[in-house]
Amino acid sequence: MGGDFGPHAILPASLFALERHPYLTILLIGEIEQLESLLAARRVTDSVRSRLKILPSGQSVSMDDKPSSAIRHRQDSSMSLAVKAVAENQADACVSAGNTGALMAFGRLVLRMLPGIDRPAIIASVPTLSGHCYMLDLGANVDCSAEHLLQFAIMSSVMVEAVDNNAGPTVGLLNVGEEAIKGNEQVRLANKLLCEQPGLNYIGYVEGNDVFAGKADIVVCDGFVGNVTLKSSEGLARLISNRVRQSFSRTLYRRCLALLARPVLKEMQAQMDPSRLNGATLLGLQGIVMKSHGSADQKCFGYALDRAIAEVLQNVPDKISERLSGYLPSVGD
Amino acid sequence: MGGDFGPHAILPASLFALERHPYLTILLIGEIEQLESLLAARRVTDSVRSRLKILPSGQSVSMDDKPSSAIRHRQDSSMSLAVKAVAENQADACVSAGNTGALMAFGRLVLRMLPGIDRPAIIASVPTLSGHCYMLDLGANVDCSAEHLLQFAIMSSVMVEAVDNNAGPTVGLLNVGEEAIKGNEQVRLANKLLCEQPGLNYIGYVEGNDVFAGKADIVVCDGFVGNVTLKSSEGLARLISNRVRQSFSRTLYRRCLALLARPVLKEMQAQMDPSRLNGATLLGLQGIVMKSHGSADQKCFGYALDRAIAEVLQNVPDKISERLSGYLPSVGD
């Protein structure tokens, strides 16, 4: 029920995912009448219909609900039931376009953290000159200690290794300069911890411009910096996209050019579309929870579904848990 | 002598600025032989030559010099002498493309802070959907208290009011969400101080995407977040610019289109060029110090010169000082 379009994006995205993945089953949780009526309006094959289950839910979590209030008052929301379905092994992953804070809170409460991990982190991929990299935390934790940044690095290394089949992904720590004296205290301390951590392919500090240059496979930072970086990039992409449209509509000649160049321009706009890499993982939970952008349309929500499927196939939380017992001496104490 | 191109960019930019501004005088400080030989290779009118003075300097500050070491060992560098020229009223402003940390250190040591201001902040303009806005701090202070953020807001309001002739510019505080409960402790406390501060046109929290949307005339944040945001934006602009080139060179048809659309594409590339808004002010000093991007070429360095001239004409430090005595009760105590 979450996001700007709710079932209007999520239902068709689910049907399309079921067509693409013949072994996939989707459990749609939400207002049953709305889901049934949206479904009735669509032509669906028997194979797809047989793998789509609908589960009714109570009042939804709104975008304005505080996480604490969602936990108290929205226990039968679609979001809460979806996370519970993962905890009770009815589902292998939960995908939601709803309130991030509430999703995180339900994740921590219902699924719990992996042993050795204090806090979940939001990780997503961003485009780079050479392909893509991953960045975390994107907003789950506004204040992070050096130890948290270390945990983020370890978890994400395992995840990227599994999902991208990239053995020993490079990890960079986001800072304002490459010199060791720069940066604030947490970052300098985290740098020390990361250098000492065996089994990590840590490459040191990276700066803001290195993120999109693809200098590291994984960029680690606190949730405040990560969130601002991600959102400002979305804003800049929108600005540039807008300027391109203006440039190509200033004169009649240019409008004709724009017509001729339409496929190129569409391709460019698509590449600038930040939703293309939709799907942020709530890393560190004992289960897979995927957050879709709230503004995700059908196509965009589909990307988040695909990411969740990839993590299920790679069994990401189990792999992290396994590696954590080797990495973190305190695990299991 | 600073920046990637040194006098090769700075000398021609200076000559061009002297041509554009008939009342301008420029004091070029650097290696005298290099400057004289570069100058000899150019055709310069008598009017321009009469307003260009050259002052010899000792060994330059390198990009790797630590600020503390620059202050100890580079007292006769071009950077140090340029800042001293402002302190001794030989110049109205100093413009440098050199080491930011060292420039800041010389500024604090030689020019000193404005009364009531604890730390300098780096402020620069960034493009927005509606024109441009200003963002600070862009890297002078990696840790900022709420009081520092308040001082940044006050200083920048006065500066923007003067330079842009914008009475009561809107001020936003950068945060991860618009809800008051979000953000870290300093930001929440700064929000409180900003709300209580008379004479500020404070509009509350803004998010990363609001920066380029132009939601506020001034975006206040700590130097870590500001630096990462600015540099990651430069990285993204470069990425998009690169993708545009690739898109337009994939097939013969597209390469022909690119030829036809050359003026539009050049215009777009220019708009995506982050150097276009070159020139960051070191705000809070008792004098005007302008930092040019290290990678600035001739044209780009010229923008920084123009910004410095605008601040001189508007007498920005004096105006800030004047307003501070009204804003900050502790001033003059």
TrEMBL record, chains A, B:
<dbReference type="GO" id="GO:0006633">
    <property type="term" value="P:fatty acid biosynthetic process"/>
</dbReference>
<comment type="function">
    <text>Catalyzes the reversible formation of acyl-phosphate (acyl-PO(4)) from acyl-[acyl-carrier-protein] (acyl-ACP). This enzyme utilizes acyl-ACP as fatty acyl donor, but not acyl-CoA.</text>
</comment>
<keyword id="KW-0808">Transferase</keyword>
<keyword id="KW-0444">Lipid biosynthesis</keyword>
<keyword id="KW-0012">Acyltransferase</keyword>
<keyword id="KW-0963">Cytoplasm</keyword>
<keyword id="KW-0443">Lipid metabolism</keyword>
<keyword id="KW-1208">Phospholipid metabolism</keyword>
<dbReference type="GO" id="GO:0008654">
    <property type="term" value="P:phospholipid biosynthetic process"/>
</dbReference>
<dbReference type="InterPro" id="IPR012281">
    <property type="entry name" value="Phospholipid_synth_PlsX-like"/>
</dbReference>
<dbReference type="InterPro" id="IPR003664">
    <property type="entry name" value="FA_synthesis"/>
</dbReference>
<protein>
    <recommendedName>
        <fullName>Phosphate acyltransferase</fullName>
        <ecNumber>2.3.1.274</ecNumber>
    </recommendedName>
</protein>
<comment type="pathway">
    <text>Lipid metabolism; phospholipid metabolism.</text>
</comment>
<dbReference type="Pfam" id="PF02504">
    <property type="entry name" value="FA_synthesis"/>
</dbReference>
<dbReference type="GO" id="GO:0005737">
    <property type="term" value="C:cytoplasm"/>
</dbReference>
<comment type="subunit">
    <text>Homodimer. Probably interacts with PlsY.</text>
</comment>
<dbReference type="GO" id="GO:0043811">
    <property type="term" value="F:phosphate:acyl-[acyl carrier protein] acyltransferase activity"/>
</dbReference>
<comment type="similarity">
    <text>Belongs to the PlsX family.</text>
</comment>
<keyword id="KW-0594">Phospholipid biosynthesis</keyword>
